[in-house]
Known about the structure:
Layout: H1 9-25, H2 34-52, H3 56-61, H4 91-95, H5 106-112, H6 118-127, H7 136-149, H8 157-163, H9 172-185, H10 193-199, H11 208-220, H12 225-234, H13 243-255, H14 261-267, H15 276-289, H16 294-303, H17 312-325, H18 331-335, H19 344-358, H20 364-369, H21 372-387
Helix pairs in contact: 1-2
Amino acid sequence: MPLQQEPSTSQMLLLITLSRCFSQNTNLGRELTTLEIRDALIPYLESLLEEHGDMLVDVVENYPNPPVKGKPAVQIPPPTPIIDSKKLRPVSRVTEIDATAGNLRPHIVYLMEFGMSIEQINGIIRRFPSFAYYSLEGKIKPVVEFFLELGVPKEDIPTILTKRPQLCGISLSENLKPTMKFLESLGVDKKQWAKVIYRFPALLTYSRDKVEETIDFLRELGLSEDNVGKILTRCPNIVSYSVEDNLRPTANYFRSLGVDVGVLLFRCPQNFGLSIEANLKPVTEFFLEKGYTLEEIGTMISRFGALYTFSLSDNLIPKWDFFVTMGYPNSELVKFPQFFGYSLEERIKPRYARMKRSGVRLLLNQVLSLSSRNFEEALEKKLKKNSS
């Protein structure tokens, strides 16, 4: 049996950089291609080379013990074919692009044509250094043009790339398009891809296992295939929530209030991205303090799914304080919790003032939900009824 050979210096260097590369890309939920590995390695190799210079080999050979600075320098061998030496530039030079220099790289110029500023591009590169080494013709342009063909407005491209620059590193034929077909099979409306990608571009980078885990949970709640597809289309970031850490505990919490969790999730999936301790419980406690029972609170959230998504300090408390001055019984909010969805200054106060001037009283939902014309007709009808 042959003896195991010690790894060469170049192999050790690749092992170190590969481990860092993979640790930053595990969230893609798939195996990286050779080109993606190469592109992800380049920034780390550059930073090591700039930091240690001619002592880089000594650093690797003596890892984890740093070499003595007085030690004679060792000549660094030529780079292996994996690394394109022409692309080796310090990350600092990439992220400090000078728009006046007149020598901007092609993909920078291309992105600027979509309205991206140098600062935005720098921000992407700082968070995801590999983006600086993506080929314009081989990676960035094909993905961007594909999105444009799907109906993504040109002005949305900067937002999408800022949210998920990794999309430009994914193969269109081997990953991106098959992933979209898979999601369409789960009910994502293919006519709505432009909106879905803009809302949550990371959806296209999740593994099938992660997506299927979420779908299985939605089905567990009794949601139909059609409704599952609608949720994925309207709120694709539901896939980013952990089933065991977020979705299931949140479902159990709302279930304890007597809520039909499947219906609530379909109406307002955003609730399931909220923290139970920081968001949900404080709202429940707020209404309990105002004299409502858990059953009444459950009825309110069932009738108005977005209720728990509002800020206590900026929305619920100010509107509650004004509601108290309106003279309605607390039961009016159980019947019409949508009250908290209307603007206090632009809708609630003006409508209440108009009703008060008329000398009549309408139900809370009539005051707020009717159109301006129907609201005036309701006031007039009430006036005639009171005068007869």
